[in-house]
Amino acid sequence: MKKICWLATGGTIASRPSENGLAPGFTAKEMLEMVPNLKDYGHIDCYDIMQLDSTNLQPEDWQYIAGYIEKLYEQYDGFVITHGTDTLNWTCCALHYMLENLAKPVVVIGSQLTIEEENTDAKFNLNAAFAMASSEKIGVFAVCGGQIIEGLWAKKLYSEDMRSIQSINKMPVATFEGNNIKWNEYENPQVNGIFKVHSDLELKVAQIKIMPGLDSELLFNLAKMGYKGIVIEAYGAGGIPFAKDKQRDIVGAIEELSKQGVKIVCTTQCLFDGVHMDRYEVGIKACKAGVIPAGKLSVEAATVKLMVDLAKK
Ligand SMILES: NC(=O)C[C@H](N)C(=O)O
After folding, report:
1. Catalytic residue among 85, 114, 267, 303
2. 205-312: CATH number
3. Residue 6 and residue 88: Cα distance in Å, rounded?
4. ipTM higher than the 0.95 cut
5. Which has fewest Cβ within 10 Å: 52, 285, 311, 313?
């Protein structure tokens, strides 16, 4: 029988009405009692490690979650983390980069309705998550709306729809239908070493979204505030404006800041296909100025990667 660790962090799934609206309240044990068939997937131990709406989750909370997995790693075959859907993909990306040589499934799952509401998606999603956590697949996965997604490619697209989290730029790993996993193509990654947690994060990383009229002073001020990394959400294939006017010359600002050692990574405002910065003048000039293209990574994935990479140096 598989041993599965349930780490509860809060989110809508565990919420109940309060005088200020929905707020986390149910423990993992209470949720397990509402979906008793989850025990069919294996022996489950419950840990209530935090009770947060995921809006309130901070990078220190990723470190806390990763620390729990590190502490309990040898004791379990798989991990299920119940979590709010709002920042679920951030936590997935953080765990993806923080857990090196992970050789077990870590499944992060949320729901759009609370577990006690009529027609809730919580029970279905929990079934999919525990089925995945008791499988032989390796990696960090997000579960939502009948899909099992590689966590690195997960993104919340709908604020209300039950299929709120979707897989971007990658096929979902599997679908969950009638209590069965239907696999798409997914090859387990090669694991070539012992499991290790990179808990250090560089917190001085910011995001800037390119917009018409953006003032380059914003970037210079970030550097003055001690920021070591900036993730730019550029246009289209990775277009960043250059101009004669210094105030509007974002590429010029990037060049100066790169020379000062600030790492600047470029993602796109487009949801699909990533950046292709070798095509247009507005991309090639930015690369010459020192920008690092993020490929197909989402802005969240690129940001967390930068936080982990900068902390390693
Ligand atoms: N559906 C949800 O879980 C949303 C909630 N605000 C959260 O992220 O915690």
Report:
1. 85
2. 3.40.50.40
3. 16
4. yes
5. 313
Which of these, 138, 76, 85, lies nearest to 107 by C-alpha position? Answer: 138
Q: Consult the annotation and say whether 54 binds a ligand.
A: yes
- CB distance 216 to 182 below 8 Å: no
- At 185, the pLDDT band (50, 70, 90 cuts) reads confident
Q: What's phi and psi for 35, nearest 5 deg?
A: -130, 65
From the CA of 110, how far away is ligand 1's center (Å)? 7
Residue 161 Cα distances to 61, 132, 175, 281, angstroms:
27, 22, 17, 39
For the segment 216-221, the average pLDDT, to the nearest whole number, is: 98
Other beta carbons less than 10 A from residue 117's beta carbon: 15
Distance (Å, whole) CA 139 – CA 102? 6
Q: How many residues does the chain have?
A: 313
Contact 167, 154 (CB under 8 A): yes
List the domain boundaries for the chain.
Answer: 3-197, 205-312
Do the domains at 3-197 and 205-312 have one common CATH topology? Answer: yes
Rounded to an integer, what distance in angstroms lies between the CA atom of residue 80 and that of residue 191?
21
Q: How far is the CA of 292 from the centre of ligand 1 (A)?
A: 32
Q: Compute the CA torsion angle 229, 153, 168, 52 (nearest 10 deg).
A: -80
Specify the CATH number for 3-197; select among 3.40.718.10, 3.40.920.10, 3.40.50.1170, 3.90.1300.10: 3.40.50.1170
Query: Which of 153, 263, 278, 163 minimizes the C-alpha distance to 219?
Result: 263
Q: Is the pLDDT of residue 115 over 80?
A: yes
85: annotated active-site residue: yes
